[in-house]
Amino acid sequence: MNSMDLSKKTEDDVQEVITENIDGKEQKSKKALRDLLVVILLFAAFPIVLRGGGAILGIVLAIMVVIAGVIMLPFSATLGLLFAGGLELFLGIRSFSQNGADSISTVGLGALLLGLGVAALFLSIKFYKKSIPWVIKKIKGCSDRIKAFADKNGKI
User: Fold this and answer.
1) Within 10 A of 33 (CB to CB), how many other CB atoms are there?
2) 110-114 long-range contacts, Cβ below 8 Å, gap at least 24?
3) Residues 85 and 117: beta-carbon distance below 8 Å
4) Does residue 92 contact residue 112 with C-beta atoms inside 8 Å?
5) CA atoms within 13 Å, Cβ hemisphere of 128
């Protein structure tokens, strides 16, 4: 073999590698496009695929939202009372020199709201100490029942 044959062979090898890479990229882009179309189809066909499962999913989701709302209510009420009480107290003290009687009632209202907020804080702590473990226990029991049902029917 002479050097001319070697260079020709090397050029052919390089051309073959470039062709393989281009074909590989085309295969990857076709696969990515197929995956994208599958995802779009799943989103479009979601209501059809679920049928009765959609109603069950909606009920479970509604129950979870109600539980979250009940858990968040004491926290929100306590935070609102503490914020409103502190603000009323501050505004009453600030305007004491301008409006004597009005600012005294504002300070009193602020102190009342702040006191209710502190009381609500202690009650919400007591509520959370009892309710959070109960909710976690119920959720765990529900998931255990679902898993036992699925194991019994051979789905998992």
Assistant:
1) 10
2) 110/84, 110/85, 110/86, 111/85, 112/85, 113/81, 113/84, 113/85, 113/88, 114/81, 114/82, 114/85, 114/86, 114/89
3) yes
4) no
5) 14
Q: What is the pTM of this model?
A: 0.52
* One-letter identity of residue 18: I
Q: Which helix (H) or strand (E) holds 156?
A: none
Q: What is the pLDDT of residues 129-142, one digit of tens each?
A: 888 888 788 878 87
Rounded Cα–Cα distance for residues 28 and 21 (Å) = 10
Q: In the 3-class helix/strand/coil scheme, how is 35-62 assigned residue by residue?
A: HHHHHHHHHHHHHHHHCHHHHHHHHHHH
Whole-number Å distance between alpha carbons of 73 and 83? 15
- Which residue, among 113, 117, 94, 114, has the nearest Cα to 104 in the 3D structure? 94
Angle between helix axes 100-153 and 52-94 (nearest 10 degrees) is: 160
Radius of gyration for the alpha carbons in the chain, expressed in angstroms and rounded: 34
> Domain locations in the chain?
11-52, 72-156
Each residue of 47-103: pLDDT tens digit?
A: 666 665 667 777 778 888 888 888 888 889 999 999 999 999 998 888 887 877 888
Q: Would you state the structure tokens that stand for residue 149, as one six-digit string? A: 């049902």
